What we know:
This protein is mostly helical. Helix content is 75%, strand content 2%. The protein has 9 helices and 2 strands.
Amino acid sequence: MTIQKLNELFDKGYEIQSKFGTTVAIQLKQGMDEEISKIRADKHLTAHGQKAKIEELKREAAREVFGVVATEKATYAKVAAEATALAKKMKTDVIKPPSNAVDVKLFEQELAALQTSIMLSANADAAIKAIDGFQSKYGSEPYYAAELQKTFPSLIQTVTAIDDSPTHKQALTRVYSRVEEKATTPEVTKANDILAYFSDGDDIKLFRDGSPQFATVKTYIGSIANHINDPSKGLDILDGKVETFGCMAGTHVME
Length: 255
């Protein structure tokens, strides 16, 4: 059920990332082309009047676009926060032992015996072989692999006390990698994928610089589009609340 929920959140996030920019660019182009055509067809307007009208239209369009982007960024951030929280919880969930209590008890006894034999061993190669054989026997069950993983620091310490050569350290690393892989449940794998995907949840860029979508938006609202991924700043510039290069914001931003 949790994996299903994470998949649903991933789909929502992916939908926003992959389609939102294209949708905005298409709708903006269609709407602006129609309105600009009307202005240029208006015989009552001089060339200067048409230019002023188009400039005003661009400002209105920019304000609308920034508002839509701000709303979508907030939606994405909410989805990312929910997915991240769920994924973190999933990573910390304890792996449940197999239902057969006898099998679990036998595993615990053999794990204790392994630890004892490794502590008494005088041969690093034989010790590593014994550890690898144990993980091969029990590693297919995530619970057993996770329990073996917990004992690995002491096993490493014991083996390297016998011989800490690079060859033996590398061999232990390979064995541990196999144990770690088997101890990783599908839930943890999914959680890791989700955490990586939503790592930019607080600062998602819905428009990539140089993308066709960004180029389209910039064509219709001008250089103010450079702030498309920071809509709050874009709106402040339009409202004259922040200064731009060399002058008060809100002037010449549509060029």
